[in-house]
Write a structure and sequence with these properties.
- This protein has 600 residues and is mainly beta.
- The chain is built from twelve helices and 35 strands.
- A four-stranded antiparallel β-sheet has the order 1-28-27-26. It has a four-stranded antiparallel β-sheet with strand order 2-3-4-5. Strands 6-7-8-9 form a four-stranded antiparallel β-sheet.
- The N terminus and C terminus are likely disordered.
Length: 600
C-alpha cells in the first residue's frame, strides 16, 4: 500500500493538545506497518469524492480471529488516474493479539477504483465467509475458496450491478434458508459524463446530491446454486431515495428479516417483510423522519437493544446541522425519536457530519454505548469560496460557524450508556485517537485482540486508516458468541439472542451489513456488568427454532451450534476472576485489565 502524506498535518498538530484525558483507544496500525489510505482523488469536489468508503470485519480464514477489509476510492480526472492506480482495497489478516499482515495480493483482492461498501457473508453455504464489494459499478462478488484466496464471480452469479452502488447486506429475506443480497444504490451519476463538470469560477459546483436523481436499490434472491435473480420489482424492494446504508433487522419481532434503509437528503425507508414481499411502513412506523416530521440526510445505521426492553432499536447518523437520530422501538411496529431525551443532541454533534456508527457495550458495564465516526464533506476553504463567490447572498447549508472553523476534519464521538435510557458524552475525555480531527467515513467493530472488549477500525478519507484497540478498563464481565447452524445459513445471520445473567436480560441480533457502507464482525457480543455466570442463552435461529443453552461461563468466546446444547467448559483454573463492576475508565498504572483468552 503506497503511503500518501496526510492532507491534514496542520490539523493533526493542532489536535495534539486536545483529548488530554485518558487514551481510551490505541491505534495499532502504525506498529503493524499498516499505512492504508482510502484514496479519493481529483482534489476538487466531485460528489463521488465526498462520500468515501466503508470497511468489513470477519474471520475469512477460519482461524478464530476477525480479519479486516479496507476500501479505497479512485479518481475521475485523467491527471489523477495514475496516482489513483497505486491504491487498492486491502485485506488485513489478523495474526492474533492486535497484529495484522497485509495479504491482499495473496488473497486475490487487489482492486483499485471506486469501492464504496462491503459485506462478508457465506452466500454459498460452504462454511467460509465470502465477500461482496459495492462499487461505482460493476459490483464484485468474491467467492472464498477456503485456502486463503478468493475468486471474483460477480458476473456469473448475476450480481455485478453497474450503477452507483453504495452499501449492501446479506440476510434470508424469503424464508428459504439461504442468504439473499440487498444492495443500495445512490444516484444516476455517470463518471465519464461528470468529468470536467466542476467549474469553480464559471458554472459553480453542481455536485450536491439533489442535483442527481435517485437510483433504485436492488434485491437479489439467492437461487441456491451460486447464482442470484433480481426480484426487486416483484418483492417491492426498490426503495425511495438515494440509498446509503441498509440493514436487515427483525424490527417487529415476527421471525422474518425486514429492511431498514438510510437515504441521503430524503425520507428513510422501512420495508416490512410480509412473506418475501415487502410493505413500505416508513411513515406509519415513525422511522422515515425525525420527531419534527423532517427528513434528514442519512449516512449510517446501527441496531441494538439499548434500553433493555427486548426489542431492537436503531440509530441513524446524519449530515451537519442535523442530529444523529435515535429511534427507540416502542413495540407494535412503532419507533419514537428520543434523541433529545437520550442526551445525544449536543452542539458538537450538530457541527459534525456523522458516518460510521456502532451501538455496542464498549466498557462492559452491561449498558449499550454509541460510537460515531465524523468528517465533513466541505472543507472550510471550499465553504468560504462557495459563500463569497458562488452564492454571496446565501448561507452554506447546515454549516455553522464552528463547523466552518474546523473544516472537514472532525472528532469522533463516544457516548457511554448510563443504563436509564440516557448517555454520557465523553467529549474531552476520550483521548487523542477519538478526539483528533479526521475526515472519517466507514467504521466497524470487532474484538481484534481477543480480550473481550470491542475494538474499532475506521476509514479516513485521504488519511491513514485507524485500527483502534479498546483500552478502557472493563466495568464488568462479557461474552462473545459465534453461532453456527447447518447449511446454507451456516453463520446464522438474522438470529435473535437473549442472554440472562446477573438478574438482567440482554437482547441481541446478528447482522451482515451495518454502520456506514460497512459490515461488523458477524458475532454476538454483550457486556454483562457484574454477572459471574450466564444463567441462560436463548437463540431463535433463522427460520424459527428456539434453543436454550444454560449455565455458561462469562469472560469467554464460545461457539453455540444449533441442535447441540453442549458448550465446551474451560478447566476451573482457567476461569478468570470477575472484572470489577465500577473501576475508572482506564486502569491505574501497572494494572492489567481483566480479560480471558478466546475459547472454542
Amino acid at each position: 500500500m503506497p503511503r500518501k502524506r496526510s492532507l491534514s498535518i496542520l490539523g493533526a498538530l493542532l489536535a495534539l493538545g486536545c483529548g488530554s484525558g485518558p487514551q481510551l483507544f490505541e491505534d495499532v496500525a502504525p506498529r503493524n506497518g499498516i499505512e492504508f489510505i482510502s484514496y479519493s482523488g481529483d482534489h476538487l469536489w466531485y460528489l463521488v469524492d465526498t462520500l468515501g468508503s466503508g470497511a468489513a470485519a470477519g474471520d475469512y480464514d477460519g482461524d478464530g480471529d476477525p480479519d479486516l477489509l479496507l476500501l479505497t476510492g479512485g479518481a475521475i480526472l485523467d491527471e489523477y488516474r495514475e496516482e489513483a492506480a497505486e491504491y487498492s482495497n486491502a485485506l488485513l489478516r489478523n495474526d492474533g493479539g492486535g497484529r495484522f499482515t497485509d495479504v491482499t495480493e495473496r488473497a486475490g483482492l487487489r482492486f483499485g477504483g471506486w469501492s464504496n461498501g462491503a459485506v462478508f457473508g457465506d452466500y454459498d453455504g460452504d462454511a467460509d465467509l465470502d465477500l461482496y464489494v459495492v462499487c461505482h459499478g460493476p459490483n464484485l462478488l468474491y467467492r472464498n475458496e477456503g485456502d486463503g484466496t478468493f475468486t471474483e464471480v460477480g458476473r456469473e452469479a448475476g450480481v455485478a450491478h453497474a450503477g452507483y452502488g453504495a452499501g449492501a447486506c446479506f440476510a434470508d429475506l424469503d424464508g428459504d434458508a439461504d442468504l439473499d443480497l440487498f444492495v443500495t444504490n445512490y444516484a444516476k451519476y455517470d463518471l465519464a459524463e461528470q468529468k470536467g463538470k466542476v467549474q469553480w469560477f464559471t458554472d459553480g459546483v453542481k455536485q450536491f446530491p439533489q442535483h442527481f436523481e435517485p437510483e433504485d436499490d436492488v434485491l437479489y434472491r439467492n437461487n441456491g446454486d451460486g447464482t442470484f435473480t433480481d426480484i426487486t420489482r416483484e418483492a417491492g424492494a426498490a426503495g425511495t431515495g438515494r440509498g446509503m446504508t441498509a440493514m436487515a433487522t427483525d424490527y417487529d419481532d415476527d421471525g422474518d428479516m425486514d429492511l431498514a434503509i438510510v437515504n441521503d437528503i430524503g425520507f428513510d425507508d422501512l420495508l416490512r417483510n410480509d412473506g418475501g414481499r415487502f410493505t413500505d411502513v416508513s411513515f406509519e412506523s415513525g422511522f422515515a423522519c425525525n420527531r419534527d416530521g423532517k427528513f434528514e440526510a442519512g449516512m449510517g445505521l446501527a441496531a441494538n437493544d439499548y434500553d433493555g426492553d427486548g426489542d431492537i432499536d436503531l440509530i441513524v447518523t446524519n449530515y451537519g446541522g442535523e442530529q444523529n437520530t435515535l429511534f427507540r422501538n416502542e413495540g407494535g411496529g412503532q419507533f419514537l425519536d428520543v434523541t433529545r431525551e437520550a442526551g445525544l443532541r449536543s452542539q458538537l454533534v450538530l457541527d459534525c457530519v456523522g458516518w460510521g456508527v456502532s451501538m455496542q457495550d464498549f466498557d462492559l458495564d452491561g449498558n449499550v454505548d454509541i460510537f460515531v465516526a465524523n468528517g465533513h464533506v466541505i472543507p472550510g476553504v471550499i465553504a468560504w469560496y462557495m459563500k463569497n463567490f458562488n452564492d454571496p447572498s446565501g448561507d452554506i447549508p447546515q454549516m455553522g460557524p464552528e463547523a466552518f472553523r474546523q473544516g472537514a476534519s472532525q472528532p469522533k464521538h463516544l457516548f457511554l450508556g448510563k443504563g436509564d435510557g440516557t448517555f454520557e458524552d465523553l467529549e474531552g475525555r476520550s483521548g487523542y485517537e477519538i478526539e483528533s480531527g479526521r475526515m472519517s467515513r466507514g467504521s466497524v467493530h470487532a474484538d481484534f485482540d481477543a480480550d473481550g472488549r470491542l475494538d474499532l477500525a475506521v476509514i479516513n478519507k485521504n488519511e491513514e486508516a485507524q485500527i483502534l484497540l479498546n483500552r478502557m478498563a472493563p466495568r464488568g464481565s462479557w461474552v462473545i458468541l459465534d453461532l453456527r447452524a447447518p447449511p446454507p445459513n451456516v453463520f446464522a445471520i438474522g438470529a435473535r439472542v437473549t442472554i440472562r445473567a446477573g438478574g438482567r436480560t440482554f437482547t441481541r441480533e446478528l447482522h451482515a451489513g451495518s454502520s456506514y457502507l460497512s459490515s461488523d464482525e458477524p458475532a454476538v457480543h454483550a457486556g454483562l456488568g457484574g454477572a459471574e455466570r450466564i444463567d441462560e442463552v436463548t437463540v431463535r435461529w433463522p427460520g424459527g427454532p428456539v434453543e436454550a443453552f444454560t449455565n455458561l461461563p462469562v469472560n469467554r468466546r464460545m461457539t453455540l451450534r444449533r441442535g447441540d446444547s453442549t458448550v465446551p467448559q474451560p478447566p476451573p483454573q482457567q476461569q478468570p476472576a470477575p472484572a470489577p463492576v465500577d473501576p475508572p475508565l482506564v486502569p491505574a498504572a501497572g494494572v492489567t485489565p481483566a480479560s480471558a483468552s478466546a475459547g472454542s
